[in-house]
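Dig into my protein:

:::
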Amino acid sequence: MTDPVITYTETGGKGRYLARVDGIDAEAELTLSKMSDRAIIVDHTGVPDALRGQGIGAALARRVIEDARAAGQRIVPLCPFFKAYAHRHREELADVIQW
């Protein structure tokens, strides 16, 4: 599998990460809401069937975590997929996840 290309766009208090893989006409997404400059809520992760089973959801999760750390933000995990990912990596994410 080719690594996904992940882009981020922000409109007002909402953000959206999109993941695309060369040769596949589909895109995965992770959306968030900004609570403040210091906290965001991950509220949705969607991976279409054409991209499932390739680690795309985990790549999106890692990217939002990396960006939140760099910005000094905490993440409130409301999305069921992201919450499960955060639980599996609880110790290494203790600095960035707000339970």
Observations:
- The mean pLDDT is 96.
- The domain at 5-88 is CATH 3.40.630.30 (Aminopeptidase).
- Strands lie at 5-11, 14-20, 27-36, 39-46, 74-77.
